[in-house]
Amino acid sequence: MQTKKKWLVTSLLGFPLGMAISQSISIIISLVSTYFSGKVQYLAVPPSLAQSLDGELWAVCWQTFWAGMLGALFMACRVIWDKEEWSLLKRSLLYYLITVSATLLVAHLNQWVVFHLVSYVVFLFIYTVIFMLIWVITYLRSYFLMKRWNQKLSKL
Predict the structure, then answer these.
(1) pTM to 2 decimals?
(2) What 8-state DSSP symbol labels residue 53?
(3) 77, 99 in Cβ contact below 8 A?
(4) How large is the angle between the packed helices 2-37 and 56-76, nearest 10 degrees?
(5) For residues 92-102, b (16+ Cβ closer than 10 Å) or e, as one string?
(6) Beta carbons within 8 Å of 128's beta carbon, 6+ residues apart
(7) What interhelical angle do 117-155 and 88-109 show, nearest 10?
(8) Which of 61, 63, 124, 126 is the most exposed place for a label (fewest CB within 10 A)?
(9) In a structure prediction context, what are the per-residue pLDDT tens digits for the chain, which is 156 residues long?
(10) Quick check: 109 and 46 in contact, CB under 8 A?
């Protein structure tokens, strides 16, 4: 029961986190666009999404909802790392496959990527590189933390 409660609480916390990250990305994209184009504009959503949903307001609501769902899923998947009886490879692959699939779906729904094979391949490549960087940094951090704890325990 404790695992289900933890899963539910982390999922609920992930929804607003996903929304906040989505809005932050919109702001960053707008700032970069403004810097390079010289035209000050806020790009809340891809123009194609606003056009397909009959206006920017509906597109922002749509994108925010799906970004929140993606945040909830990422947080819900954190319980995978608690399965210590599984190998690190199994946990990593399962987490990667679930999150990359969901992210690709949300990217498609929000028109963050153009509906073209090359766009999806580039998206998957970028996602995989970022995932691997975060994984390696997290692994190294945990490794050195454990090493430090073991040194302290050996001195006792």
Answers:
(1) 0.81
(2) T
(3) yes
(4) 140
(5) beebbeebeeb
(6) 96, 100
(7) 140
(8) 126
(9) 577 888 888 889 999 999 999 999 889 888 988 888 888 888 888 888 999 999 999 999 999 999 999 999 999 998 898 888 999 899 999 999 999 999 999 999 999 888 889 989 999 999 999 999 999 999 999 889 998 998 888 887
(10) no
